[in-house]
Amino acid sequence: MAPEPNDPQPVPLDELDRRILEAVTADGRITNAALAERVGVAPSTAHTRLRGLIDRGVISSFTASVAQARLGVALQALVGVTLRPGARQASITDFAEHTRSLAEVVQVFFLGGADDFIVHVAVTDSSALRRFVVEQISGHDRVASTRTNIIFDYHRNAVVDSFR
């Protein structure tokens, strides 16, 4: 059984593991032959080592990065959410389940700090953002307050640079 991706125990990596991670984070669709060539090993070794990184929970998934604007949902925002006091566990679970099911939601972050959640959304325009926040977030009975920040631009690192 593979370890959980959020297991706090670090997995030791050697130089070949690091080169493989660098290659697959730069291009998740790289062929095994191209991966082997890029890291300087036989294809069978590249396959075995990549499979080992997956089995040890270092690589938890392969995903596509989608250009939201090309889908007609160019306006993105981060909505900070504070829940009402009382019945915290039920509130947290209920709000998280509700929010994760919404089509506009890109990511949901459960936090420790001023906000209980940050909800990353993508919508068509400012009217759709207003409607979403008012009806889907603020309108939820467990929500005390929201704070919305529009995203002008962002950069996402595929992975923290500590493995290099």
What does the model show?
With 164 residues, the protein is α+β, with helices and mostly antiparallel strands. Helix content is 36%, strand content 19%. It contains five helices and four strands, in the order αααβαββαβ. The chain has helices at residues 15-26, 32-39, 43-55, 88-100, 126-138; strands spanning 75-83, 105-110, 117-123, 143-151. The protein has a four-stranded antiparallel sheet with strand order 2-3-1-4. Helix 1 crosses helix 3 and helix 2 crosses helix 3 (43-55). It is elongated, with a radius of gyration of 20 Å.
Which key features would you list for this structure?
19% strand, 164 residues, alpha+beta
Question: Could you give a quick summary of the protein structure above?
Answer:
This protein is of the alpha+beta class and 164 residues long. The longest helix has 13 residues. It is elongated, with a radius of gyration of 20 Å.
Order of H and E elements: HHHEHEEHE
Give the rounded overall mean pLDDT. Answer: 90
Sketch the major β-sheet: 4 strands, antiparallel
| Proportion in helices | 25-40%
Residue share in β-strands: 15-25%
Radius of gyration: 20 Å
Outline type = elongated
- The structural class is alpha+beta
- The number of distinct β-strands equals 4
The side-by-side strand order for the widest beta sheet comes to: 2-3-1-4
Continuous helix count: 5
Quaternary assembly: single chain
Distance between the termini: 27 Å
Can you tell me the residue ranges where pLDDT is under 50 for at least 5 consecutive residues? none
